[in-house]
Amino acid sequence: MELKSTNPHLRMTVRFLEKAHRQYNAALWATVAELLSRPRRSRVIVNVGELNRLLNDGDIAVVPGKVLGDGELSKKVTVAAWSFSKTAVDKIKAAGGEAITIPELVRRMPKPSGVKLIT
């Protein structure tokens, strides 16, 4: 797939996800790479309040876009995303959860069974 972004970090992340897809035969990583390859205005934007509604305690989720801090989070979850607002990171940590990068999630869980895709 052709990524038109000039952001070298984004290009590296997409290539990393495509390689992980091929290496571990994990379709989720190919889907996340495709969603990150979209134009910025088409990427996913999720608030922590929405994560609170969609996830259960102990869930692991990947957001191929940005997580914003609107709403409250009362569940201990691990969230991997392309980017986080400072407020979102603070609220995730305050709930006992973890905010990590997508490559970090791939390193921890190369075969993403049980990881929820938030779109």
Total number of helices: 5
Radius of gyration: 14 Å
Largest sheet: 5 strands, parallel
**Mean pLDDT over all positions:** 94
What kind of assembly state do the chains in view correspond to?
single chain
Order of helices and strands: HHEHEEHEHE
Instruction: Please provide the count of β strands.
Output: 5
Q: CATH topology, anyone?
A: Ribosomal Protein L15, Chain: K, domain 2
In words, what does this structure look like?
There is one protein chain. The protein is of the alpha/beta class and 119 residues long. It has a single domain (8-117), classed as Ribosomal Protein L15, Chain: K, domain 2, CATH 3.100.10. It is 42% helix and 23% strand. It has 5 helices and 5 strands, in the order ααβαββαβαβ. It has helices spanning 8-24, 27-36, 48-54, 86-94, 102-108; strands at 44-47, 60-68, 78-84, 98-101, 115-117. Strands 1, 2, 3, 4 and 5 form a 5-stranded parallel β-sheet that branches. Helix 4 (86-94) links the parallel strand 3 (78-84) and strand 4 (98-101). Helix 1 packs antiparallel against helix 2 (27-36). The longest helix is centred in the first third of the chain and has 17 residues, at 8-24. It is globular. The model has no long low-confidence stretch (mean pLDDT 94).
